[in-house]
Amino acid sequence: LTVGDGKIYFSIPDSLNGMNLIDADAAVYVVSTSGTPTVQVHNATDTQDMLSTLITIDINEKTSYTAATPPVINTTYDDVATGDQIRIDVDVAGTGTAGLDVILTFQTP
After folding, report:
1. Are the beta carbons of 24 and 103 closer than 8 angstroms?
2. pTM for the full predicted model
3. Helix or strand or coil: residue 53?
């Protein structure tokens, strides 16, 4: 895992049109032995970060589900529309970390 914007991109399908992001988590395949992997979800179409508190994965953990600091969704920028490009940014990679899955949950408001 390396630091940088746009590590993953995907487009919102029409089945998610008008929905809101309600949960965001991440997982890695090889844990960090030092440093906390930190991930932002960015709506590139709207040029807005969707999280006010980023996803973190604690040292020696594979997922963010038990992170000391849970992610917080910015409800001002949580909505998506068909074709929106969502970009995943890695702000901190950690040491020895490999792989990245980002798990996003959307719901009709």
Report:
1. yes
2. 0.94
3. strand
- pLDDT tens track for 34-73: 999 999 999 999 999 999 999 999 999 999 999 999 999 9
Whole-number Å distance between alpha carbons of 21 and 108: 9
- Contacts by 104-107, CB closer than 8 A, 24 or more apart: 104/21, 104/23, 104/24, 104/41, 105/21, 105/22, 105/23, 105/24, 106/16, 106/19, 106/20, 106/21, 106/22, 106/80, 107/19, 107/20, 107/22
Question: Does residue 14 sit in helix, strand or coil?
Answer: helix
Cβ–Cβ under 8 Å, residues 100 and 89: no
DSSP 16: G
